[in-house]
Amino acid sequence: MAVYELIAAADDGSTAAADPNHEALSVVDDSNEGEHRPAHRDLERGAGKSIAPLDKAEFAPLKRAPRLASLDVFRGLTVALMIFVDNAGSYFPAINHSPWDGVALADFVMPFFLFIVGVALAVTCKRVTNKAMATQKVILRATKLFVVGLVVQGGYFHGLYDLTYGVDILRIRWMGVLQRIAIAYLLAAICEIWLKGDQDVHSGYSLIQQHQLQLLVGLALTTIYIVLLYGLYVPDWEYHIPVAGFTLRTFSVKCAVRGDTGPACNAAGMIDRRVFGIQHLHRHPVYGRIEQCSVNSPGTGPLPPDAPSWCQAPFDPEGLLSSMMAIVTCLIGLQFGHVIIHFKDHKERIVQWMIASFCLLALAFSLDFYGMHMNKALYTPSYTCITAGTAGVMFTGVYVLVDIYGYRKPTLVMEWLGTHALMVYILLGCNIFPLFAQGFYLREPENNILKVIGIS
Question: Helix/strand/coil (H, E, C) string of the chain?
Answer without folding.
Answer: CCCCCCCCCCCCCCCCCCCCCCCCCCCCCCCCCCCECCCCCCCCCCCCCCCCCCCCCCECCCECCCCCHHHHHHHHHHHHHHHHHHHHCCCCHHHCCCCCEECCHHHHHHHHHHHHHHHHHHHHCCCECCHHHHHHHHHHHHHHHHHHHHHHHCCCECCCCCCCECCCHHHCCCCCHHHHHHHHHHHHHHHHHHCCCCCCCCCHHHHHHHCHHHHHHHHHHHHHHHHHHHHCEECCEEEEEEECCCEEEEEEECCCEECCCCCCCCHHHHHHHHHCCHHHCCCCCHHHHCCCCCCCCCCCCCCCCCCCCCCCCCCCCCCHHHHHHHHHHHHHHHHHHHHHHHCCCHHHHHHHHHHHHHHHHHHHHHHHHCCCCCECCCCCHHHHHHHHHHHHHHHHHHHHHHHHCCCCHHHHHHHHHHHCHHHHHHHHHCCHHHHHHCCCECCCCCCEHHHHCCCC
